Each structure stands twice: as C-alpha cells, then as structure tokens.
Amino acid sequence: MIQIGIAEDQALIRESLAIVLALESDFEISWTAETGVEAMVLTEQVAPDIILMDLRMPEMDGATAIRRIRRMKLKSQMIVLTTFHHEEWLMDAIDAGAVACFMKEIPPDLLITAIRAIYHNNWDPDLWTKDWRRYAPEIQFRAHLGTNQTKDNQENLTSRDIDIWRKLCSGATNKEIAADLHLSEGTVKNYVSILYAKLGVRHRAEVVNLARDRIF
Predict the structure, then answer these.
(1) CA distance 51 to 133
(2) Which distant-in-sequence residues (6+ apart) come within 8 Å of 64 by Cβ?
(3) If DSSP states are collapsed to H, E and C, what string results for the chain?
(4) 12, 99, 148, 169: least CB-packed within 10 angstroms?
(5) Do 29 and 61 form a contact (C-beta atoms < 8 A)?
(6) Please, are residues 161 and 191 in contact by the beta-carbon 8 Å criterion?
(7) Distance in angstroms (rounded) separating the CA atoms of residues 82 and 139
(8) Handedness of CA 200, 204, 205, 207 (dihedral sign)
(9) Interatomic CA distance for residues 133 and 110, integer angstroms
(10) Domains and CATH numbers, the chain
(11) CA–CA separation, 78 and 183 (whole Å)
C-alpha cells in the first residue's frame, strides 16, 4: 500500500485529491494538511511514502517544507503540485529535494502513474511523453539534464543558458548576474551548475575556453 500525504491550502483541491487518490486500491491517504508547518508536523508523526506539496501556502511555503522534511531523513518523497510557472520558486523546490513538479491541471491518471513510478523507484523524466511534459514545468527537465554530465547536452542549451554563459565569459559574478536577470543569487548558482553539466566543464575557465569555439 502506497501511503500518501497531501499539503494544499485550498480545501476543494485538497479534498478532491484525497477522494480521487483513495479510489486506487494500492493508495491510502495518511493525512491532509493546509499549511507547510502542518505538513511538517504530520510527517514527523506519520511519514508517508509520497507527499503531494503545494508551493504557496500560509505559514511556510512548499520549498521550505520540503527542505525541512528532507532533514528528517525519512522515506517520504515529494511531488510538487502548483499553479505557478515562477522559475525561481520551482528551482528552489527542486533544489530542496522535490522528485517531480506538475501543474495542478495534470489529469488524475498521469499523476497516479507518476506516484506509482516514484514509489517503485522507476522514475526517469527522459522517458516522458509529450503528454507528461504538457503538465510539467520545463525547468525540471533542465535540472534533470544537469545530472547527466555529457557534452551531448550542449544541444539542449536554452536562451537562459546562453545568457548566463555570455555573462560568465564577460567576468560577471553570480551576484551581478542575479541583479541583471532579476533572480536570487541562489537560483543563479543552480543555473550555473546546470550549465556546467550541460557543457561538460568543471569551472569558469573551462566555460570561457569553450566559448572561443562557439559563435553565440
């Protein structure tokens, strides 16, 4: 039986999720919470296998709750469900330890399949069809690429990657890049790490050297 916790401040969505998921014979709802703090407390009491986590909640946001639950070193794996495409929030959640992020309009059958795949450690965004990706923020795929350190990933560079590459080559610091792009310095650090992985480099000097062979 897959134990599931649901952290969502909107009662209609929270209860609807609980009802739909409870219909599955191998799912059981451990608890529901309307704030990040409540989710953290309930997880300490009963650690479910999967936690569905909203990003914007009162008292404590989803990314902070994910990070603090991770520190408990429990078995729980977390899936973000959100209505927001705000890249900084999503990157913060991924950096905190979210296994996957989906928009709340995801069809129940896709979410149910994702829950089972994550529970059984059979989760790989590279295998997703376009139906999956329709409901998944693109930023998590860029983060996933950051774990595959091959130069083939250079073909997957985004316009944001190119912007950051140019700024690194100009000698800009992470703080300066953050100010120019209106991002937090922590988010820029994450983007830089992903860029390094895509380029197959380890430090800024290699980024600059590689740029000499590429026309932006």
Answers:
(1) 21
(2) 36, 96
(3) CEEEEEECCCHHHHHHHHHHHHCCCCEEEEEEECCHHHHHHHHHHCCCCEEEEECCCCCCCHHHHHHHHHHCCCCCEEEEEECCCCHHHHHHHHHHCCCEEEECCCCHHHHHHHHHHHHCCCCCHHHCCHHHHHCCCCHHHHHHHCCCCCHHHHHHCCHHHHHHHHHHHCCCCHHHHHHHHCCCHHHHHHHHHHHHHHHCCCCHHHHHHHHCCCCC
(4) 12
(5) no
(6) yes
(7) 13
(8) positive
(9) 11
(10) 2-137 (3.40.50.2300), 146-211 (1.10.10.10)
(11) 25
CA distance linking residue 21 with residue 139, whole number of Å: 27
Sheet holding 27-33, edge to edge: 27-33, 2-7, 50-54, 77-82, 100-103
Q: What amino acid occupies position 177?
A: I
Please name the residue that has the structure tokens 């639950």. Answer: 69
83-113 confidence digits (pLDDT tens): 876 667 777 788 788 888 899 999 999 999 9
pLDDT in tens, 33-87: 999 999 999 999 999 999 999 999 988 989 899 999 999 989 999 999 998 766 6
Residue type, 101: C
